[in-house]
Amino acid sequence: MIRVIAVFLARILLSLVFLGSGIEKIFNWQDTERSLLTALCDWQVYAGFLLPMQECMASLVPWSAFLLLLAILLELAGGLMILFAYKEKWGAGLLILLLIPVTLIFHPFWFMEGGARDVQSAMFFKNLAILGGLILVALYGAKTRVETGD
């Protein structure tokens, strides 16, 4: 019984990050789109030594509204799939596809110094930890018992 409750609680905690973020983006669309545009522009500066990367980031700017809508849909769909254990492996896959570029684009601590570097480093590694949890869900689903070969 403890495993059933623990797995249910784990699904709630893992999905809340994405459901809350998706809902927050809807209600703060303009601020979120501005943050996306800022991150894409920052990457153009960071990638000043690499023209193809600069061009790639610049080409995403006109697509910012679509990218934001896509992020919201992935967060909400993936979060709900994990929460309700409905095709949770697919839900985790959707969130993994979202979390990898989001982590790289929004938390490039390696380009920063001082306090900003510390904050972005913490956010980057937090996202890696969440990514690890999502990989487990993608591999094992939201089972109430994880079977091992022991």
Structure explained in plain terms:
- The protein is mainly α.
- The longest helix has 27 residues, at 114-140.
- The protein has one domain.
- The model has no long low-confidence stretch (mean pLDDT 91).
- 18% of the residues are buried.
- It has helices at 2-27, 29-46, 51-60, 64-83, 88-106, 114-140.
- Helices cover 80% and strands 0% of the residues.
- Helix 2 runs antiparallel to helix 3 (51-60), helix 4 (64-83) packs across helix 5 (88-106) and helix 5 runs antiparallel to helix 6 (114-140).
Low-confidence stretches: none
Q: How many beta-strand runs?
A: 0
Order of helices and strands: HHHHHH
Query: In angstroms, what is the radius of gyration?
Result: 17 Å
* Helical residue percent band: over 70%
Which class do the helix and strand fractions yield?
Answer: mainly alpha
What is the count of helical runs? Answer: 6
